[in-house]
């Protein structure tokens, strides 16, 4: 697939803990939506990033860890590949994890910015995990980290236990609702809790 004139540079970033029995071949199958979209014939062929200073897609067999810091050229249709990837990673992951995906408008330049035109940049936060509980735990942990980091500018960390407790109540209620609706028996969608949007201005490129 040729993406030479693609309207976006797409950056995928995240670490996913894998089950101990998952080897390279299983991971290659799970990530096939990504490397095939990039026009590669295998994971090894497609693991390199568009930018040399990024490690790309790496598998650490000793730590059973998938590490992604990978950029490719693409279009809006890449979102379907992300959905397929998340479903596949749910099957091989050992615990919940967050994956950040940033789409940079490749045609947006300084002239557009000076003219006040908005870019088509977008940001999506995806979650994967072996169970709905694991996915919710990853969502909860990331939210707590974000809230505490923000509030520690104004309060001592020891004062924030009540805030963390309220976040836990929200996730407990969400999980109870999930159980009561019987969705617990369905395969989890990896994109649960995604948060697309342009808010806050243009996201700095390669900010980790």
Annotate the secondary structure layout:
Elements (H helix, E strand, L loop, with lengths): L7 E10 L6 H7 L1 H6 L5 H4 L9 E5 L4 E10 L3 H15 L4 E9 L4 H5 L7 E7 L3 H20 L9 H20 L28
Antiparallel strand pairs: 1-3, 1-4, 2-3, 4-5
Tell me what you see in this structure.
The protein has 208 residues and is an alpha+beta fold. Helix content is 37%, strand content 20%. A five-stranded antiparallel sheet has the order 2-3-1-4-5. Strand 2 (56-60) and strand 3 form a beta hairpin. Helix 1 (24-30) packs antiparallel against helix 4 (78-92) and helix 6 (132-151) runs antiparallel to helix 7 (161-180). It starts with 7 loop residues before the first strand and ends in a 28-residue tail after the last helix.
Attribute tags:
208 residues; alpha+beta; 5 strands; 20% strand; globular
